[in-house]
Specification:
globular; 15% strand; 48% helix; Rossmann fold; alpha/beta; 257 residues
């Protein structure tokens, strides 16, 4: 019974931003759990490297896509549809960050973040929706998992205005989509805290890993299985009655302050 609850073997998943960081953590967890996974991002070198590694454990392939534009998202949707006739799981993880003093913020840097973090999530979902609808039923919904951030729940210490605003927007977009796509598709968000990823590297280095870990109730930075676990839960029978939820995976930062 327990093994069936968390079983995702044979499911098809797309993970955007899968060539590094949290996207790779989730893709690896899916592949090891028996799902077929397509990872997508702009950087083919990273995608090739991750695909070669994960293909030793299961079914993984990649698609190069720039998800900062509507056309890039449309292209990803078409490329996935050329391979699969249905899609069980979409993980909207591709993202960007930018930090600078308020006086140095400009339109270009603001849009650099929001184009990927908010519009990219929306348009990717829109263009992959027919495949998700083909897979999902009220009894066994297809799943959308958006990657938000603890910085969309609380005010961050760094001047990453566009990033925190974009992640708060992702959380609200998650709730809005959850209402309209039910019952055949669930939509939830994971809000990570500090993990060892390319996006977080500068922040962790600036704060100091030991110091940052010391401020967290669980006293450590997130590990790959800490991210794969919630994603597998949300994608499995165990998570089929959740929708519109924002789940902090942050070592207790947001929930204990």
């Amino acid at each position: 019974m327990t093994s069936e609850l968390f079983d995702i073997a044979g499911k098809r998943a797309v993970v955007t931003g899968g060539g590094s960081g949290i996207g790779t953590m989730i893709a690896a967890g899916f592949v090891e759990a028996g799902a077929s996974v397509i990872i997508a991002s702009r950087k083919e070198d990273s995608l090739k490297e991750v695909t070669e590694e994960l293909s030793q454990k299961g079914d993984c392939s990649y698609i190069v896509a720039d998800l900062s534009t509507e056309e890039g998202c449309r292209g990803l949707g078409a490329a996935v549809a050329a391979r699969w006739d249905s899609l069980d799981i979409l993980v909207n993880n591709a993202g960007a960050n930018w930090g600078a003093p308020l006086a140095e913020q400009d339109t270009k840097s603001w849009h650099r973040v929001l184009d990927v973090n908010v519009e990219g999530v929306f348009h990717t979902t829109k263009f992959l929706l027919p495949l998700l609808q083909a897979a999902g039923t009220a009894e066994e919904p297809a799943r959308i998992i958006n990657i938000g951030s603890v910085d969309g729940i609380q005010v961050p210490g760094f001047e990453t205005y566009a990033y925190s605003a974009s992640k708060a927007a992702v959380h609200q977009l998650t709730r809005h989509l959850a209402k309209h796509l039910a019952p055949a598709i669930t939509v939830n968000a994971i809000a990570p805290g500090p993990f060892q990823s390319r996006m977080m590297r500068a922040t962790i280095e600036a704060a100091g890993e030991e110091r940052m870990a010391g401020m967290m109730p669980l006293k450590r930075i997130g590990r790959p299985d800490d991210m794969a676990g919630p994603a597998i839960f949300l994608s499995s029978r165990a998570g089929s009655f959740l929708t519109g939820a924002i789940i902090p995976v942050d070592g207790g930062i947001a929930t204990t302050r």
